[in-house]
Amino acid sequence: MKTLFLDFDEDKIISSLPKKLPLFPLDNVVFFPSTILPLHIFEDRYKQMVQDSSISHNLICMTLLNTEMGDEDSESLSTTGCIGRIINNEESEDGKKNIILYGLKRIEITKVLYDKPYREVEIKIIETTYSDNSEAFKKRIMELINKWNLLLDGYTDDYKIKIENSSTLSKITDSLSSSMVAKASDRQSLLEELDERIRAEKIIAVLESRIEILSGKIETPDSNSTLIN
Description:
Elements: H1 10-15, E1 21-26, E2 36-41, H2 44-54, E3 59-64, E4 80-91, E5 97-113, E6 120-125, H3 134-152, H4 169-180, H5 184-192, H6 196-219
Helix pairs in contact: 3-6, 4-6
């Protein structure tokens, strides 16, 4: 089992960020705060990025890449991303790296730099606007999670949602945005949404829709379809 190094002071890290940070853009990957992201690093420039980060601050910024606009064009980068800390770093015999990032904060990319083989960025931290009704939203989301998990009883535990009841609404919505929203563009929209209330409303709608679909599959099973897709 991998050892995940989560014993760090997030506030201290954020308050002392370096001016420039490495950027790892990927298509179809939207990284959220308080989530875990495993990455397989095989390109030489990004292996160098991980090496450089590991001997300095252990930080990497992630953002969604629009490959239709080309890999090297700064306009292909979403300007809203997430900064993460390396909590596990393993190297295989062929030099490839397997790392795990833990999401810290939403970021806005203010400048892209091309001084190294990989991109670096200047960023600013962007904060959530919290809802006065966060407990009510959280209660509704937890009710829907329980309903989803009950529907899966007797079928599979693989797709059950595991959320600690002590988690904040913001952490819950970010976790569900990462795991329950299929389209990268929709996940990116949720990452860019800074209003906690709107994020919660969208996640509630996603859960209600997924529960309706799952209920139909369980009540009228189709031998040619999978339970979850």
